[in-house]
Specification:
alpha+beta, nine-stranded antiparallel sheet, 28% strand
Length: 200
């Protein structure tokens, strides 16, 4: 009887130890899951804040450009702090290019494409900024500019075709383009102060 009772007590101790071990293991699993979730949330928050800063700096830059109309090579060189070179011209238009420009949080203006009309009276210029490296999303742009209208869509010929979202402002038309190859991220900004409608 004593031997039988002793065996029962030993088995009970083993069972209790196994239960304690299972509880500890469960606690550790829960702790790991909570820490992982917190790290992911922290990472997302940092990314969102970076995106907001990226968008803010670009919007400030756009505002500076619009205050510079009519555009000239000299004005854009002063604003971007980089040389802008004449790369091509015809009887009507001069084509200038510059870049790359590094902004905060790894935003890069890969190329500045400035076009100035040679014969048109009161020409205000035309400029395209190609954006790379950081991802600025459409929602951030809409937060700044409100409702945008689709003015260009891919035609299925290339992954580099874009969807462009545009709006008219007092100074002219601004468009934001997103290429199919990375459709969630802004790839270009187009400022056309000559435009009187969304589709010109």
């Amino acid at each position: 009887m004593v031997i039988f009772t002793t065996k029962i007590m030993e088995n009970l101790k083993v069972t209790l130890n196994e239960s304690k071990l299972a509880i500890v293991q469960l606690f550790l699993i829960i702790l790991i899951l909570v820490c992982t979730f917190c790290l992911e949330m922290s990472s997302q928050t940092r990314e969102e804040k970076m995106n907001e800063q990226n968008a803010f700096e670009l919007f400030s830059l756009i505002q500076s450009i619009t205050k510079s109309f009519p555009l000239t090579k000299e004005k854009m060189e002063s604003l971007f702090k980089t040389p802008i070179q004449l790369v091509q011209e015809n009887d009507y238009v001069q084509f200038f290019e510059g870049g790359s420009i590094h902004l905060a949080n790894d935003v890069i203006i890969e190329k500045i494409d400035l076009r100035l009309h040679k014969t048109r009276p009161n020409d205000k210029g035309f400029i395209v900024l190609n954006i790379t490296n950081a991802c600025i999303k459409l929602e951030e742009i809409k937060d700044k500019y409100g409702m945008l209208e689709i003015t260009d869509s891919p035609r299925g010929r290339s992954l580099y075709e874009v969807t462009s979202y545009s709006t008219l402002l007092p100074w002219g038309k601004i468009s934001f383009s997103f290429a199919e190859i990375k459709r969630d991220c802004l790839c270009a900004i187009i400022l056309n102060p000559q435009a009187k409608s969304l589709y010109e």
